[in-house]
Input
Amino acid sequence: MSGKTIFITGASAGFGAASARMFAKEKGNRLILTARRTEPLLKLQEELAANAEVHIIPLDVSDREAVQGAIESLPERFRCIDILLNNAGLALGLEPAHQVDLDDWDTMVDTNIKGVMYCTRFVLPGMVDRNHGHIVNISSTAGAWPYPGGNVYGGTKAFVTQFSRNLRCDLLGTRVRVSCIQPGMAETEFSKVRFKGNDEQAAGVYRGTEPLTAEDIAETVHWITNQPPHVNVNTLELMSIDQAWGPFAIHREQK
Ligand code: NDP
Ligand code: 8X3
Output
């Protein structure tokens, strides 16, 4: 079969949808698009149908049995996955650790950590058997650099980064590649989700800046996965030109 089979989690919006559009531009690709919301997946399937074979699966990545079932029951033409894009994820809230809603922490751990674990574990054996494949994990600058309110979100993304590196150790001697992308601030539905539908607060994150776009990340995924087979991009961090690090925060007593 010509073309590649690409399994994308979180394909209903943002980076995942943009990556689907990017891969659909290459002739002969087969896309497996997954997310919890069916409606945007159907729309994307219709949009891309002229260029790529698209199979959609409504899927919550934090549901282990559902992930296993989805991967084990893929139609024949979509079975041999060349690229797994572990992209589904979210941040919820920006409160300090002593005030957060514990359910939000659970949801982030279940989605950002367990979702990546489950998809990887069920896709990887086929890649190892075929001695071919590429796992691209979407981490974040939040996994490398702390910020107030980043508490568990940053922790989940640090997991994604280190998991990616550890996978490379386990896969040494195979031709299965693993890459980790760490984007900074990018304008997608991310902040709307983080602030639970508060559009004003979400817009405030990007106000007066030129943030990264979903297309920037899709270009990066595409570049990483189109390197010669002997080249493994391990970790790639990118930010908007309007974002950088701050100095250490220092608390001073008022005298
Ligand atoms: P969006 O909110 O635009 O997209 C997130 C995607 O994840 C949606 O398709 C959503 O689909 C899906 N998703 C969320 N929870 C689940 C779940 N339990 N099961 C399956 N799919 C799920 O955000 P982005 O595109 O910006 O985010 C994509 C990834 O990039 C995330 O991992 C995020 O943490 C990371 N990231 C984002 C940055 C940013 O500034 N935007 C920067 C760095 C990293 P649905 O709701 O339909 O399930
Ligand atoms: C998203 C980037 O800085 O909002 O992962 O955490 S940030």
